Amino acid sequence: MKMKKMFKIGLCMIAGVVLNALPAIAGEMSSDGTLKELNEMKSRIERLESSEINDIEKDWMEKISISGLIEVEAGHASMKYKDSETPNAKNSDITLATVELGIDAEINKHVSGHVLLLWEEDDTEPVDLDEGYITLSGEDVLPLYLSAGKMYVPFGSFNSHFISDPITLEIGETRESAIRAGFANDLFDISISIFNGDIEKISGDDRVKSWVANAIFTLPEDAVSGFGLSLGASYISNIAESDGLEGEVLAGAINDYVSGVGYFLNASVKERFFIGFEYVGARERFAPGDLSFDNGLAYKPRAYNLEFAWAANDDLLMGIKYGKTKELGDLLPERQYGCVLTYGLFKYTTVGIEYLSGKYENGDKSNLFTAQLAVEF
Hints:
Blueprint: H1 2-20, H2 22-27, H3 32-63, E1 64-80, E2 89-108, E3 111-119, E4 128-137, E5 144-152, H4 169-172, E6 175-184, E7 188-195, E8 200-201, E9 210-218, E10 227-236, H5 243-246, E11 253-254, E12 260-269, E13 273-282, E14 302-311, E15 316-326, E16 335-346, E17 349-359, E18 365-376
Parallel strand pairs: 8-11
Antiparallel strand pairs: 1-2, 1-18, 2-3, 3-4, 4-5, 5-6, 6-7, 7-9, 9-10, 10-12, 12-13, 13-14, 14-15, 15-16, 16-17, 17-18
Helix pairs in contact: 1-3
């Protein structure tokens, strides 16, 4: 195919030289028939050039896909402090909460590229390159793949029907420049990722030694009529690398690495009833003073999230949740309850309202109302 394109382009170049000489040749020719043949040749060459350009443009348009997300939110939050000397607080705001623009390119059958730009008001201004990686895939030859670049390494799942992120994401989500290699088919996705994290031992050196392993089982859609199931487990060699805990490590270093584990299960019945459970937590205790919220104690941070949702029809969905944390101080609520209602206003357009109530380890209480308008494309 490539040789054929090169031949066409070469032919166009030669024809261009001939066309430039047409006026001189035509001046020496008096035959109307010869002039007619030359004009017909010129028309054929122009059609060939136009066809070649259109084929190239069409080829690239078919290989590149663009997607996006826009979320506008209005919220009201209140905090009631257990300490009577601390005044209670209330605030409200309207924000362009999220703008995402994703670009996916299928370079060829075995190579693809992914870029995701993210803008979050007050968090990632002006724009953050959230993801950017290349994937090599065995496709129908071997069910193996390798991804390299900036990515969210597969520690945790964090699926939710709520507007707000699940409480497990706050201590589990981990974005790094990494290499991920794995095996995937219709049932399983198993992989190992390696990266050089930002959190080192106090006496350690700066090199690639952090890693994540994960395994996910997904029940094929046609295996059990009307029933969907996905479950998995993951392991991280240093949970302090998670985006939520990384900023809480004092001096950017810890006494010793603390590994973490995550488990999740998501199930659905006839795409009407949904249940999701997830646990994320440290396997051992951090040394006293490693974390900003540990009050000088050896903390073992962990969290879980449980959700139920019911889709009354294709547009209306209602859900409830319960989240719990352990040994996270005042970083996150110790207990969290919530409910959500979302409605598909138009195609790819949803509106939703959410309420979350939280109680912290020290007795403080929080209430948060959020309304959201979201568009996907």
